Each structure stands twice: as structure tokens, then as C-alpha cells.
């Protein structure tokens, strides 16, 4: 009988430890403030709420983690996960897990976004928008940084509602390879740099009255429901300045 209780106690301890380890492994780490300053951003998630999506407001972003947005301590990156069946924002066809700058500005003075990141998994279309200058109204996607099947591209609209013009800055980037990009705005001029490759854009008069803001993360360009595909990006550094 004593041996039976010893065996039962060992099994209970083993079961408790297994549950504890499993709970740890299934958890998602919050982004440490010592590694990233997320206070300038809200977080948009591909989760439905009130005919739109869940938005984590500025101060809460640093205290939030889920399967869509979490810190990966092994390489000290923020992971942005999005599946093609996620809920899009109102006015969009595609889902996103994306940081949205809280501060809004116009094409005057200077504003800069710098990101170090990698695309770890791409959706069925092979396309993810990884950075933006965006406005409020329809047709105000001023600038986009695209991942397009291993190419890094910059797309811009010279005037509000123009058709996007797109150029390739970097080719043959494998999944998992880390690269840097920056968007440097100076009045109506914007310089985009991807690693050592640069492109400059001049924005027209129609942008001067449009409030805009930076975005960065994983704006998945796939809304397939059958099959559902996913995109995963990793961000290793994020800086924003004015």
C-alpha cells in the first residue's frame, strides 16, 4: 500500500509538472520595455469587434500578448502573426496585425520610421505590407513597403487617390533573412532605404491637408478562406522620431 501511494505521489507530481511546463510553453511573452518602446503606437489585431477589429490602445500594448503579437525571447524579436481568415479593418479587404502610430502629422517638418525585421512565413499570395505612411480617407495610402515573394518594394501615390506606382529595391530575399528599412520624410519628400538601396519620392499638393501616420508589422495581402494561409514577421528593432 505504501508503494502504491509513493507511485501515486510521483505520478501526481509528474502530472502537475507536465501541466505547468505545458502552460508555460503555451503562453505568450509580453514585449519588454527595455527592448522596445511601443508607447507611440496602437496595435490593430485581426479579431472582430463591433463591425471592425480589436485595437489595443497605446499604454496597453506593452502589457499585451497573444498568438498574433508576442515577444520571442530566443532572438529578442516581436512576432506578428496573421492568417488569411482574420477580420479586416472597415474599408479594407485584408487582415492585419499592425502597429499604428498614434501621433498624426502632415507632409511638413521631418518624421522617420526605422525597422529591422525578417519575414518568416508568407501567405499564399506571397504578399505582405510591412510598413506604411497612411491617411484617414480612402485612397490615402501614401507609401507602402511591400514584401512580394522575396522582393522588397516601395509603392507610392504622388497625389491622393492616384494609382500606386511601385519599384523594387531588393530582390531574392529568403524567408528568415534580416533586413533594415527606413522611411525618412522631409516636408513633401520621402527617402526609402532598404539595406543600402534607396529610392526618393516627391508628394504632390493634395497631400498637404491630409493627416498621416506610420504603420509597421504584418498587413497580410491574402484573404483566402480555403485554404487558409498565414504570414509571420519578426521585428528586431523599431524606432520612430520627429
From TrEMBL:
GO BP annotations listed: carbohydrate metabolic process
Residue stretches making up the Alginate lyase domain: 36-241
Recorded superkingdom: Bacteria
Leader peptide range in chain numbering: 1-23
Gene3D superfamilies attached to this UniProt entry: 2.60.120.200
Entry keywords, A to Z: Lyase, Signal
Keyword RNA-binding: no
Pfam families linked: Alginate_lyase2
Annotated InterPro entries: Alginate_lyase_2, ConA-like_dom_sf
Gene Ontology MF term list: hydrolase activity, hydrolyzing O-glycosyl compounds; lyase activity
The protein's name in its UniProt record: Alginate lyase
Organism name: Chryseobacterium culicis
Taxonomic classification: Bacteria, Pseudomonadati, Bacteroidota, Flavobacteriia, Flavobacteriales
Amino acid at each position: 500500500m505504501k508503494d502504491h501511494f509513493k507511485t501515486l505521489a510521483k505520478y501526481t507530481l509528474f502530472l502537475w509538472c507536465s501541466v505547468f511546463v505545458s502552460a508555460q510553453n503555451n503562453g505568450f511573452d509580453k514585449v519588454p520595455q527595455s527592448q522596445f518602446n511601443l508607447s507611440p503606437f496602437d496595435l490593430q489585431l485581426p479579431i472582430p469587434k463591433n463591425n471592425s477589429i480589436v485595437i489595443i490602445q497605446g499604454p496597453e500594448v506593452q502589457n499585451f500578448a497573444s498568438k498574433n503579437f508576442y515577444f520571442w525571447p530566443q532572438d529578442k524579436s516581436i512576432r506578428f502573426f496573421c492568417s488569411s481568415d482574420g477580420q479586416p479593418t472597415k474599408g479594407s479587404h485584408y487582415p492585419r496585425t499592425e502597429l499604428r502610430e498614434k501621433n498624426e502629422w502632415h507632409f511638413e517638418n521631418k518624421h522617420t520610421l526605422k525597422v529591422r525585421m525578417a519575414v518568416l512565413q508568407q501567405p499564399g499570395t506571397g504578399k505582405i505590407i510591412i510598413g506604411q505612411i497612411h491617411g484617414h480617407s480612402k485612397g490615402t495610402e501614401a507609401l507602402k513597403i511591400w514584401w512580394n515573394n522575396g522582393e522588397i518594394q516601395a509603392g507610392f501615390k504622388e497625389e491622393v487617390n492616384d494609382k500606386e506606382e511601385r519599384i523594387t529595391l531588393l530582390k531574392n530575399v529568403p524567408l528568415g533573412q534580416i533586413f533594415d528599412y527606413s522611411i525618412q520624410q522631409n516636408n513633401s519628400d520621402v527617402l526609402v532605404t532598404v539595406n543600402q538601396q534607396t529610392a526618393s519620392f516627391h508628394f504632390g499638393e493634395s497631400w498637404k491637408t491630409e493627416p498621416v501616420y506610420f504603420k509597421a508589422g504584418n498587413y497580410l495581402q491574402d484573404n483566402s478562406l480555403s485554404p487558409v494561409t498565414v504570414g509571420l514577421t519578426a521585428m528586431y528593432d523599431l524606432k520612430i522620431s520627429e
